[in-house]
Amino acid sequence: MGATPFIVFGYGSLIFKPPPHVISQVSGFLKGYVRRFAQKSHDHRGTPENPGRVVTLVHKEHWDRFSASDAFPDEDVVWGDTVITGVAYTIDPLHVAEVRDYLDYREKDGYTLETLDIYTIEDGIETVLIHNCYVGQPDNPSFIGSEPIDALAKRIWHSVGPSGRNKDYLYKLAESVRLLAPTSHDSHLFALEVSKSRSFH
Q: Which of 39, 135, 142, 172 sits at 20 to 30 Å (Cα–Cα) from 66?
């Protein structure tokens, strides 16, 4: 038997900036999690002095403990479970170690590699795939939990880091999710996206 493929699930920037050495990809989704801008970014979309905000995944049961300021704590729910869309990337077996090192460095600000059930649709049938996924757990030092939507939008609007403007991350993610799953709706993400029409000074 061959080695188990290394497959990583992207639900944030990995959707619009995939890892290297991808040999195949398929859209997929998670159940029972929320995707929220609940993670500080000191190294990509902000600085240590002015950290930006990026998304992480939090299990809905855990999020209920941190969602006091979440404007949409119980929305985006399908079949009784929260559904998060993203992309599952299969990495070339010859480059797994290289890609692991690349991802470990890219996701170093509070993210750890977890193994989660990822679902996809094959021939009209829902199929469970086991994939790796970088998650910022609630006990990591960069996890900030929920923030009022206006305060969060203002933070994203003004933050800039080595990887660029925080608001560009937001816009690219919203656009990518919409293209990936046109019928889905991420209330939190899209509410932040429309905040670009507001004036933050």
A: 172
